[in-house]
Write a structure and sequence with these properties.
The protein is about 40% helix and about 20% strand. It has 7 helices and 6 strands, in the order H-E-H-H-H-E-E-H-H-E-H-E-E. The strands form 2 sheets. The protein has a 4-stranded parallel beta sheet. A two-stranded antiparallel ribbon has the order 1-6. The two termini are about 20 Å apart.
Length: about 180
């Protein structure tokens, strides 16, 4: 729909198998314990997305890559001359820490604190790797600036037209890749 109006090309890449759904399987979570990646990043690893991005970068020139939050960073090439702009619609590790303050189940809390440590490290590395981060508020930008000195931040509030927005009934299981002729 609207993406087709602003994008020069549009590619839809299915989420990796087993990654749809809010909670994921306990088996996936157990396997991810041995990974340095937090579970969210582990489950969003996509060979198809990595290949598509690599091919686009090989074939065309870009002014920047807009990466929508930390769970997709591992799908970008390790080294690229194209600047990466990281869109942060929240500070993920802070949200998890808030949740953990209320968790009563000791197993969930133990798992959660392990995930929190991985997530915080991952999130800060993603910000540093990107070099330019879009924070959704001055508060978030201030916190991230203190944690990631040297990274450039800009505040871009999250907005939605509440009069015309209708949430989807369920996740469609698709990751969207878009190339646009939009000035950065």
């Amino acid at each position: 729909g609207e993406l087709g109006e602003i994008c020069k090309s549009l590619g839809l890449i299915p989420l990796p198998s087993g990654s749809s759904g809010v909670s994921g399987s306990y088996g996936q979570r157990l396997r991810s314990l041995a990974s340095p990646m937090p579970y969210g990043a582990w489950r969003h690893r996509s060979k198809a997305m990595r290949s598509a991005i690599k091919e686009l970068l090989r074939r065309e020139q870009f002014d920047g890559i807009l990466c929508d939050d930390i769970y997709n960073v591992q799908n970008l090439p390790a080294a690229t001359r194209v600047p990466v702009i990281l869109n942060k619609h929240d500070i993920t590790h802070v949200i998890l820490k808030r949740y953990l303050a209320y968790e009563k189940n000791p197993l969930k809390a133990g798992y959660g604190w392990l995930e929190y440590a991985k997530l915080r490290r991952w999130e800060l590395k993603a910000c540093v790797r990107s070099g330019f981060v879009l924070a959704c508020s001055e508060h978030d930008a201030s916190l991230l600036r203190a944690l990631c000195p040297g990274v450039r931040f800009s505040e871009v509030p999250n907005v939605i037209d509440v009069d015309s927005y209708a949430p989807a009934d369920e996740d469609d299981g698709v990751i969207v890749a878009c190339t646009a002729n939009v000035p950065v």
